[in-house]
Design goal:
The protein is built from 4 helices and 7 strands; from the N terminus they run E-H-E-E-E-E-H-H-E-H-E. It is α+β, with helices and mostly antiparallel strands. It has one domain. The longest helix is centred in the middle third of the chain and has 12 residues.
Length: 149
């Protein structure tokens, strides 16, 4: 069951000026959620009123639990990424050996509650840490603290 007041997802990603996303897809045999190569063009706002075309400065390859895992349980999202990538750990280690490639896991937690705590089992943290250089955690509260009594 998904609670619309909570948004959780986990994303694994790689970024480098020399990263070729098609090669990563082929090597890992996993379709990315999002990918682009250095030099790819995209349309964006160049100001508040005008759009323009820019070129990507680096290559990116990402896979996310967002839209795939149908629960709001954070551990389900973490488990999805671990189950997907753990069998490819040797290939990921080879990629990690290149200091020019930044590899991270992003854990996103968003809630309507003013205070939201999360628990990350140490085994999950250990498995995620083996797949990346950094684990980035964002906890966002969309709710305010009421002073009404």
């Amino acid at each position: 069951m998904v609670d619309k007041s909570i948004i959780n997802y986990v994303r694994f990603g790689m970024q480098s000026s020399e990263l070729l996303p098609n090669m990563i897809t082929e090597e890992l045999e996993i379709q990315p959620t999002r990918s682009y190569a250095r030099g790819d063009e995209y349309v964006t706002h160049t100001s508040k009123t005008e759009k323009g075309v820019r070129k990507r400065e680096s290559g990116v390859w990402q896979v996310s639990s967002k839209g795939t895992v149908q629960t709001d349980n954070l551990q389900d999202h973490i488990g999805y990424i671990i189950d997907l990538l753990h069998p490819k750990q040797a290939e990921i280690r080879t990629i990690l050996s290149n200091p020019e490639v930044y590899v991270d896991v992003c854990i996103w937690v968003e809630s309507d509650e003013p205070v939201h705590s999360i628990m990350l089992p140490s085994k999950s943290v250990s498995l995620l840490a083996a797949l990346c250089r950094d684990i980035n955690i964002s906890v966002i509260s969309r709710g305010g603290i009421s002073t009404d009594k």
